[in-house]
Amino acid sequence: MDRPNFSKSSKDYFSDSYYAVLDLKPWASGVDIRRAYRELSKRYHPDTTQLEPEIATKKFQQLNEAYSTLSSPEKRAIYDLEIGYSRLHVIAPLPNNQEKTKDSAYLDATDRPLSSGEIAVLLSLIVTIMLCLALVTLVGYFRSPSNPF
Fold first, then answer.
1. What's the number of CA atoms in the CB half-sphere (13 Å) around residue 117?
2. What number is the average pLDDT over the span 14-25?
3. In the chain, how many domains are there?
4. Which has fewest Cβ within 10 Å: 68, 75, 79, 92?
5. 51 is a domain residue
6. Taking the complete model, does pTM exceed 0.70, yes or no?
7. Which residues contact 49 (CB under 8 A, 6 or more apart)?
8. 23/64 same-domain check
């Protein structure tokens, strides 16, 4: 399929794209793409349609080509770049961490002292691990064949 004509208005921007073949918007989900393909493939299949066989075959081939491209995330991402559509402008930019840490005495936001709750949790984990090791040692000692107990 040819690339869309970029000189058109924004309303007709994607009218020559695979999205138009499947009657979808560029932000359609994978489920929407599959649903549209199944519906249109039933309508335009050369064996079941009332259209002339040449027209039905051509339309069905376009549907298959559009679906094979849009159903694969990798192919779809490349195709979206080719037609000039980007999902990136919808995502809010990440905050700049450098600006947040300028007022901080620490070099990195993760470089800070532990709170009392964090220290308590660490100590309880250490005690639990030590008790487990002691229990394993005791069980091993009392189950050994050289032990008379």
1. 0
2. 84
3. 2
4. 92
5. yes
6. no
7. 43, 56
8. yes
